[in-house]
Amino acid sequence: MAERRMFAKTIIDSDAFLDMPLSSQSLYFHLSMRADDEGFINNPKKIQRMIGSSDDDLRLLMAKNFILAFESGVIVIKHWKIHNYIRNDRFKPTMYQDEKALLSEKGNKSYSLDQGGIPDDNQPTYQMDTQVRLGKDRLGKDRKEITPSQPKATPARHKYGEYKNVLLSDQELEKLKSEFPSDWQKRIENVSEYCATSGRTYKNYLAVIRKWAKKDNSNQNQLSMPRKQNYQNNRPRTESYSAMQYEVYIREKEFEKGLTLEEYAKRKKLKPNELEGLKILIEKNGGN
């Protein structure tokens, strides 16, 4: 197996990569350095613990599709063949042929997951072939010839939240500020954290924030009726936070079999009233 690894600036200089925390970027480099000659790694958790990264760093790499995961626990670097070219006399085929059989190779040499493992939806792609290009002037001319009338432009959406994954247009942001004048920024951060840890994406983030706000009002009434002693001096965080913790807990149980609620609460450093609110949501949803 080759001892040297390379990295394409097209990937590591992209906004999608640089928007991630430094801990996630570091984990990506360490995983790439220890991958076999086809980009597969069978011990990502060990490497994560070795360099002090968190589970969220690994999940963020999966959510942004910089790595692809299989049910066996093996992962593969999605853009491995963009990064590296290994000579035939030094190349050693991967031993994870079953996982490799689930992959297809795109035109830009990046891996795509066809079936099994974690779905390969919403993957960022990077076009590497720059030998054949159309100039901007020519492209504009061709468009005028092909389309006699230009379609109505969709309002541009901008990235918000710590992980830059909540997309809102200027109009949507103004509506959000108007509807939640006191805590609109916190509501954006709640959705940003949830999407980063769970890998979820949405078509309309304003609608998600409104939905969480409705649940906040309904569940706040339910939580205030029983066990009044838990809420006199320690008011819980908004229900949107509790709903997010519930979603993350369910996702982590799917990812990590045998995870108990107590272990999850200790890992996330939940306060007693927050744990109590989470228990009520779990009971409400069938005890999952």
Name the features.
288 residues; mainly alpha; three-stranded antiparallel β-sheet
What does it look like?
The protein is mainly α and 288 residues long. It has helices at 9-12, 15-18, 22-33, 44-51, 55-63, 80-83, 97-100, 136-146, 170-179, 184-198, 205-224, 239-255, 261-268, 272-284; strands at 40-41, 67-69, 75-77, 103-105, 111-113, 157-160, 166-169. It contains 14 helices and 7 strands. The strands form 3 sheets. The chain has a 3-stranded antiparallel beta sheet with strand order 1-3-2. A hairpin with a 5-residue loop joins strand 4 and strand 5. The longest helix has 20 residues, at 205-224.
Total number of helices: 14
Encode the helix/strand succession as letters. Answer: HHHEHHEEHHEEHEEHHHHHH
> Which regions are unreliable across 5 or more consecutive residues at pLDDT < 50?
119-146, 228-237
Instruction: Give the structural class.
Output: mainly alpha
Computed CA radius of gyration, to the nearest angstrom: 23 Å
Largest beta-sheet details: 3 strands, antiparallel
> What strand line-up does the widest sheet have?
1-3-2
* Span of the ends, CA to CA: 45 Å
What is the subunit organization of this protein?
Answer: single chain
Identify the overall geometry: globular
Question: Could you tell me the number of beta strands?
Answer: 7
Share of helix among residues? 40-55%
The fraction of residues in strands falls at 5-15%
Output mean pLDDT.
Answer: 80
Topology of helices and strands:
Blueprint: H1 9-12, H2 15-18, H3 22-33, E1 40-41, H4 44-51, H5 55-63, E2 67-69, E3 75-77, H6 80-83, H7 97-100, E4 103-105, E5 111-113, H8 136-146, E6 157-160, E7 166-169, H9 170-179, H10 184-198, H11 205-224, H12 239-255, H13 261-268, H14 272-284
Antiparallel strand pairs: 1-3, 2-3, 4-5, 6-7
